[in-house]
Structure formats: C-alpha cells, structure tokens
C-alpha cells in the first residue's frame, strides 16, 4: 500500500458512517451553529480528521469543498455554501471579508479557533480504532498503535503504516 492508494480508497468509500464518535458530535454541532451564523469555524490539531469531516459534510449538505483559501478566491461561483480547508487567516474579520461576496454559508477549517462559533475536533483512542477499522481492507487488521491520547495524529499513524516508521 502507498499514500495514493490510501487516499484513493478513502475518497472512494467515505461516508457519514465512517465518522468517529467525536467527528459525528462535531458534525452535528456544525449543523447547529450554521443556524445561528453563516460563517463558522472547525478547528483542531493537525491530524485529527478535520479535512475528512469537511469532505463528508460537503458531500452530505451540498457544500463545495475548497482545499485552501487561494482555490476559493479563484473560484467564480457566487452565493454558494462552502468549506474552506487549511485556513491560515488568524483574524475573524479577514475571514468574513474574504467570503462575504461569494458564499452563503461557510465552514472555515483551521488549526486554531478564529470565529465565535467554533467547533473543536479532538479524537481519542476509540476514534483511532474506528478509523483503522474503516481502513482495514487496505491497511490490514490487528494494527498496534502506541500513542498518547493527547497526541493523536492520524497522518503519523498512516505514515507509519505506509512507510514502516
């Protein structure tokens, strides 16, 4: 298995059912917050599954997913529901200014909380087990993962499985 195979497998098979318990909690909170504000923030440490949650949310809720701010800025559509991943802005006014003319509803994904309506995504060891179970057809079963609960990074786990470190 290689990285491309892993990503292709995920993109071919992902669904709401693949979300972990904590991702489902965040998903529901995002839907709730979108009732109260048009621009909300999904944030959390690297490797906790924010991007994956963004893909699922976009697929299920008629949002357009953008990998980053530049791709969003270069997109010509107007009045769209959108998810902007890998957010680098650190001021809520900049985020709102960037999306004001193009988007109806926005989920801005970043590592830090930027907006008042923010949903933090954290994973625990049970979530990691579910992710590994979802991917077991391609990465195999009976994977021993030695991580601390506060230091979960799914990409490190995947790299270890793919490259053997």
What is the total tally of β strands?
Answer: 5
H and E string: HHEHEHEHEEHH
For the largest sheet, list the strands in their spatial order. 2-3-4-1-5
The CATH topology of the domain at 14-120 turns out to be: Rossmann fold
CATH C-level class of the domain at 14-120: Alpha Beta
Instruction: Indicate the proportion of strand residues.
Output: 5-15%
Per the principal axes of the C-alpha atoms, what is the gross shape? elongated
Q: The biggest beta sheet, please?
A: 5 strands, parallel
What is the gyration radius calculated from CA atoms?
16 Å
Can you put this structure into words, describing what you see?
The protein has helices at 3-13, 21-36, 50-61, 69-74, 92-99, 125-139, 154-163, and strands at residues 39-43, 64-66, 80-84, 103-110, 118-120. Helix 5 links the parallel strand 3 (80-84) and strand 4. With 165 residues, the protein is α/β, with parallel strands linked by helices. It has 7 helices and 5 strands. It has a domain at 14-120: Rossmann fold, CATH 3.40.50. The protein is elongated, with a radius of gyration of 16 Å.
């Amino acid at each position: 298995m290689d990285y491309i195979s892993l990503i292709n497998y995920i993109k071919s098979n992902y669904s709401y059912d693949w979300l972990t318990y904590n991702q489902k909690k965040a998903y529901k909170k995002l839907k709730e917050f979108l009732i109260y504000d048009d621009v909300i923030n999904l944030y959390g440490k690297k490797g906790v599954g924010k991007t994956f949650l963004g893909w699922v949310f976009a697929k299920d809720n008629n949002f357009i997913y953008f990998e980053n701010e530049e791709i969003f800025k270069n997109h010509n559509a107007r009045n769209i529901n959108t998810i902007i991943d890998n957010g680098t802005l650190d001021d809520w006014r900049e985020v709102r200014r960037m999306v004001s003319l193009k988007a109806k509803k926005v989920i801005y994904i970043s590592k830090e909380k930027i907006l008042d309506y923010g949903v933090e995504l954290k994973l625990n060891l049970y979530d990691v087990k579910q992710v590994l179970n979802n991917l077991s057809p391609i990465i195999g079963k009976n994977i021993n993962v030695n991580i601390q609960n506060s230091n979960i990074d799914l990409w490190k786990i995947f790299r270890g499985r793919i490259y053997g470190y």
